[in-house]
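Input for the complex:
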Amino acid sequence: MMNAQQYKDSLKSLHPLIYCSGRKIENVVDDPMTAPHVNSAALTYELAFDPEYEDLMTATSSLTGKKINRFTHIHQSTEDLVKKVKMMRMIGQKTGTCFQRCVGFDAMNASFITTYKIDKKYGTNYHERLKKYIEYVQESDIMVAGSMTDPKGDRSKKPSQQADPDLFVHIVERREDGIVVRGAKAHQTGMVNSHEMLILPTTNLGPDDADYAVAAAIPVDAPGVIHFFGRQTNENRRLEGDIDCGNAQYAIVGGETLTVLDDVFVPWNRVFMCGEYDLAQEFVETFASYHRQNYGGCKVGVADVIIGAAAAMAEYNGCHKASHIKDKLVEMVHLSETMHCCSIACSAMGHKTEAGSYYVDTLLANTVKLNCTRTMYEISRLAHDIAGGFIATLPYETDYRSDVGHEYIDKYFAGDARFKTEDRIRMARLLENMTGGTALAESMHGAGSPQAMRVMIQRQTNWEQKKTYAKKLAKISTED
Amino acid sequence: MKYCGGCNPNYERSGIVKRARSEYPRAEFTPYDKAGYYDLVLVICGCLEECFTFACSNSRHGAIPIRAPEEYRRLQAFMEAVGERAETTN
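Predicted:
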């Protein structure tokens, strides 16, 4: 396993092509725009060596029998699935934001199940290739960016019907030594501070879309790969100091990118699907369900921080004894723990797959994430209510630090005199940054937009059985 | 000391160790290693759920779970039984 420093050093040896606001980022570890995201991912390495957390952070490899970082593990039991959720909550409590590494974790587990099914149907050997790749990932402890979402273009059309064929990643050449792919992946969490990406198809495909049925592992600095670092709400504050960032150490969400694959070569030993279009939907559903499982883990850890910040703000404001404040705080906990319940449930109700690994209960996993699309907004709304409007109107940190401004700002933003004004401002900025803009949109669309969950819930629900229950009680004949 | 995974502990688990080191300076408290051999293994869990399963076969006196600060008395009782007196009390 790598520790945090080894992870950071390993990133420095890579040379990804990253553009950010018109310039190239040469070193993601030290560049102020990417450093917080690196710090957040680095915690997944650091905690694996901490005796206080190693039981959650590490696992025994089913492939080698060695101790590995859990983020590279293939789930071997429902206990593993539960531990994943608990681990993510614990890390979220420490980072207050996304730590990115779950996406590759989920992509590898989804690929483990799906490649087995492809091989069973077509007699291919993707599963063995994938096992070798996963063994490499476990041994080297690299960070893999799970890479599913294509730009999608006109949402009413299939990939092969798009005006521009590159709006979904597709195979443009099959060679003796591998394939060449073209297209792009959007909203790529943790991409710039990963070592490799594991691309998967993003939608169900038909016979005309066979070239779009591609899964493969690609180094983030492979020739033809170009990353455009995403702009976030308030992101330039990290160039100006630490208070206004709110969470200067770890920032907000996962440092997403638009990652262009401009005729990228992939050798065969890193190709895990190549044209088997009828199993693309398997990839999508399996990855999505694993990924939706997470939201009652990491987001609950983040919510723990938001709730703590709101409770502290109530104290700083001198209103923590008001009954309506207590009610709102309890409501926040209720919403947060409801998400956690769903994630624990979909994990505990998981099952063993034909491939031998364990998979979540998909109906419950999709329920987790659909709840999250509402719940994180409501938790954030309640936090804003409790904290007060000044979280949106505070002066600049530079003015607070200035000779002329400090005295006035410190005086007029004071709350309960037992607490320092700077602490009140710091907590307000933490709340502001954790509960607005980019952070909220991620809760809505990360791991898929709400309608994607509704479609899965529609498919997974046994409607006929429910109707039968009702008809029996209503004494309506069910024999037609 | 063997810690549970620490997913959502109800108290600062490291505080138990800090207190033990302070009260029993003659004892050596080290992170658990399955290859080691110990007089006692303190299993420090963050909550009462005790979801953490731990089989201990490399300890002379087995394992004592501590799931809450008040269960620190279990360590105190053990120390008293083996004739180790606390030097300070919190």
